[in-house]
Amino acid sequence: MMIMMAPEASPEQIRQVVARLEATGTVHPKVVPGASQIAVAAIGDAAAVRGLGLQALDGVDQVVPLSRPYKLASSELSHHAPSVFDIAGRRIGPDTFCIVAGPCTVESREQTLRVAEAVAPHAGMLRGGAFKPRTSPFSFKGLGRPALEILAEARERTGLPVVTELTDLQQADAVAEVADVIQIGARNMQNYALLEVAGKLGRPVLLKRGLSSTLEELLMAADYVLKEGTDEVVLCERGIRTFETATRFTLDLGAIPWLKLHTHLPVIVDPSHAAGDRRLVEALARGAAAVGADGIIVEVHDEPEQAMCDGPQQLRTRDFPRFATEVLAHAALVGRRPSTG
Ligand code: PEP
Ligand code: MN
């Protein structure tokens, strides 16, 4: 339910509403500022909210239902205005296009620094996995904590904020210490314990869509993070499982305009994992810009033939400047400027 406060409602009247909702023990209240009036979202037990008779309180304009199954992520909550985040000096929102670029995996200090320096002039953020979720338990799972130190050095040298994945509750503090953005990978989109921890780390979260998850499930997963306090959740469409096996996954570009209608959260696209083949990545990235994505996250390697993970889909560092220029030109056609520092 949404408790719409009257435009002249006092802070004390808003506090009263929040206190009554909290006292139910079954409702999660969240104050939502708006252009003309403040709302209090009451998430959870709708019957308990109805039982409070809040519409009779001074300062309350009306009590209206939140109709969608996802709540904090819903555009109903933001009065249909898109959220704009400033993440370590990078703007993520409807006027900008952010290119997050870097290797799939931090394999060595030298490799990571070479790639970071190559992408820095055109990218908005640096990606790189320290802890990798691998389909086979026998595959390389990343360098772990030493990789976090390498990413911190790469940030120091290039000024690029760092996006890196959290795969395990036990690494949460170590990852949060270095990451400017905490990535939750596709395989963990419904790892609810991990989502709740990620929401408590005080860092923005990049939440990737699960391999076989619906968009409603993605938004409810975002609710798990948002309810813990983090306001900054960026969604990522990275391709889904379909009957088609020619591409690694099927990039669901229709997801982007649908998400723009139904959530206030920014949405980026991962053309690398969707394609599985570097020759397809630029076309998908241009498509992402054209359908209104707020950015892309793309894999880049200086020697993809030697990569320990996802070699075939990683762009070559030497091709990256032209790639980024092309994609940003497409983003400019839909009114977006580069989200660089
Ligand atoms: C990644 O971005 O490193 C990754 C593993 O992607 P996904 O979770 O989308 O498979
Ligand atoms: Mn990868």
Total strand segments: 16
- The helix/strand order is EHEEHEEEEHEHEHEHEHEHEHHEEHE
- The residue-averaged pLDDT reads 96
Radius of gyration: 21 Å
Instruction: Work out the count of structural domains.
Output: 2
Overall geometry:
elongated
Write out the CATH superfamily name of the largest domain: Aldolase class I
Topology:
Blueprint: E1 2-5, H1 11-23, E2 27-32, E3 39-44, H2 46-51, E4 60-64, E5 85-87, E6 90-92, E7 96-102, H3 109-119, E8 125-127, H4 145-158, E9 162-165, H5 172-178, E10 181-184, H6 192-198, E11 205-208, H7 215-226, E12 233-237, H8 255-262, E13 267-269, H9 271-275, H10 278-290, E14 295-301, E15 315-316, H11 320-333, E16 337-338
Parallel strand pairs: 7-8, 7-14, 7-16, 8-9, 9-10, 10-11, 11-12, 12-13, 14-15
Antiparallel strand pairs: 1-3, 1-4, 2-3, 5-6
Helix pairs in contact: 3-4, 6-7, 10-11
The structure holds phosphoenolpyruvate (PEP) and manganese (II) ion.
Phosphoenolpyruvate binds at residues 104, 129, 133, 165, 185-187, 208, 238, 270, 273.
How does this structure look, described?
By secondary structure, the chain is an alpha/beta fold. It folds into 2 domains: 2-65, Alpha-Beta Plaits, CATH 3.30.70; 85-338, TIM Barrel (Alpha-Beta Barrel). It contains 11 helices and 16 strands. The chain has helices at 11-23, 46-51, 109-119, 145-158, 172-178, 192-198, 215-226, 255-262, 271-275, 278-290, 320-333; strands spanning 2-5, 27-32, 39-44, 60-64, 85-87, 90-92, 96-102, 125-127, 162-165, 181-184, 205-208, 233-237, 267-269, 295-301, 315-316, 337-338. Strands 7, 8, 9, 10, 11, 12, 13, 14, 15 and 16 form a 10-stranded parallel beta sheet that branches. Strands 2-3-1-4 form a 4-stranded antiparallel beta sheet. Strand 11, helix 7 and strand 12 (233-237) form a beta-alpha-beta unit. Helix 3 runs parallel beside helix 4 (145-158), helix 6 crosses helix 7 and helix 10 (278-290) packs parallel to helix 11 (320-333). The two termini are 39 Å apart. 49% of the residues are buried.
